């Protein structure tokens, strides 16, 4: 029951992001974890890091294509002592 609720919440949140940003502008990394990988009392940080590294290698080209070339505009506060001074 908990898995159904968490999966539903996750899918709903991602659908909301797609609605706000557009379907082509939202990307999700959601690999399946083997049973017992993140046991509360027996989790091994090395196993968790290895699994994260493995899946990030496959997502990295998507991340680079979408986000790596982005440069944000300079920060300009709307309020406060430095607002509009630049």
Polypeptide structure, described:
The chain has 86 residues and is mainly alpha-helical. It has a domain at 2-27 and 42-67. 51% of the residues lie in helices and 0% in strands. It is built from 2 helices and no strands. The model has no long low-confidence stretch (mean pLDDT 83).
Summarize the structure.
With 86 residues, the chain is an all-alpha fold. The chain has helices at residues 2-21, 45-68.
Number of helices: 2
Provide the residue-averaged pLDDT: 83
Low-confidence spans: none
Let me know the number of strands: 0
Relative strand content: under 5%
Principal-axes geometry comes out as extended
Q: What percent of residues adopt helix (DSSP H or I)? A: 40-55%
Element-level helix/strand string: HH
What structural class should be given to the helix and strand makeup? Answer: mainly alpha
Distance between the termini: 54 Å
User: What would you report as the Rg, rounded to the nearest angstrom?
Assistant: 19 Å
Major sheet details: none
List keywords for this structure.
86 residues, 51% helix, mainly alpha, extended
SSE arrangement:
Elements: H1 2-21, H2 45-68
């Amino acid at each position: 029951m908990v898995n159904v609720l968490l999966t539903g919440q996750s899918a709903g949140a991602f659908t909301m992001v797609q609605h706000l940003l557009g379907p082509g502008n939202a990307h999700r990394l959601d690999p399946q974890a083997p049973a017992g990988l993140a046991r509360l009392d027996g989790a091994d940080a090395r196993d968790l890091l290895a699994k994260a590294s493995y899946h990030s290698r496959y997502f990295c080209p998507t991340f680079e294509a979408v986000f790596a070339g982005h440069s944000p505009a300079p920060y300009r506060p709307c309020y406060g002592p430095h607002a509009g001074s630049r």
